[in-house]
Amino acid sequence: MERRKMAGLGIRLEADDRMILNGAGVHFLTGAQIRLTNRADFLFGRQIMRPEEANTPARLIYYALQTAYVGTAEERKAALAEATLHITAFIQETTSESARGLLADALREATEGQFYRALKIARRIVRHEDAVLQDAGGL
Predict the structure, then answer these.
(1) Phi then psi dihedrals of residue 29, to 5 deg
(2) Phi/psi of residue 122, each to 5°?
(3) pLDDT band at 7; cut points 50, 70, 90
(4) Is the dihedral of CA 104, 107, 113, 117 positive or negative?
(5) How large is the average pLDDT for residues 51-73?
(6) What is d(CA 44, CA 42) in angstroms, rounded to the nearest whole number?
(7) 50 within 8 A of 20, measured Cβ to Cβ
(8) CA 68 vs CA 32, 77, 78, 88, 103: distances in Å
(9) What percent of the chain has pLDDT over 90?
(10) Tell me, what DSSP letter sits at residue 26?
(11) Contact partners, residue 1, CB within 8 Å, separation at least 6
């Protein structure tokens, strides 16, 4: 009998790595190689933002979108409302047209249920904010 390899996404994690898988936090005590064989919502490593790290407008957006992506259906609804509030405020406050465009894209993706895509855009907003704050501190 022929053995077939299972399709899926393989991930190698080191000891002390963390992962959020369908809303559950996973802390790897030892290194592991895992294969996700069906659809799952997950983040790992640097993709995960802890609550105490959500301390700027862009990070508040990222954290809310993260919660919408990996949270329960109940958490998703509240997190999407929170992300919408933070995105709207950021759009009104920023003078950057490129940031406004990215924020509008993130909001559109999120409202269409494409939370991972929205998170990828939110990472760009965090990098933009970091650069602006760094420039402002260097004056």
Answers:
(1) -80, -25
(2) -60, -35
(3) low
(4) positive
(5) 94
(6) 7
(7) no
(8) 27, 7, 8, 17, 16
(9) 52
(10) E
(11) none
Q: Report if pTM > 0.85.
A: no
The owner of tokens 């957006």 is 61
Cα Rg, the chain, nearest whole Å? 17
Distance CA 139, CA 136 (A): 6
Dihedrals φ, ψ of 107, to 5°? -65, -40
- Tell me, what's the pLDDT at 100? 95
**SS (HEC) of 19-74:** EEECCEEEECCCCEEEEECCCCCEEEHHHCCCHHHCCCHHHHHHHHHHHHHHCCHH
Name the amino acid, one letter, at 50: R
122 by Cβ neighbours in 10 Å (0-12 / 13-18 / 19+) ranks as buried
Please give the Cα distance from 45 to 77 (Å, whole number).
25
For residues 129 and 82, give the distance between their C-alpha atoms in angstroms, rounded to a whole number: 19
Provide the b/e sequence for 17-48 (b: ≥16 CB within 10 Å): bebbeeeeeeeeeeeeebeeeeeeebbbeebb
| 3-class secondary-structure state, position 96 | coil
* Six token digits for residue 104: 């509008």
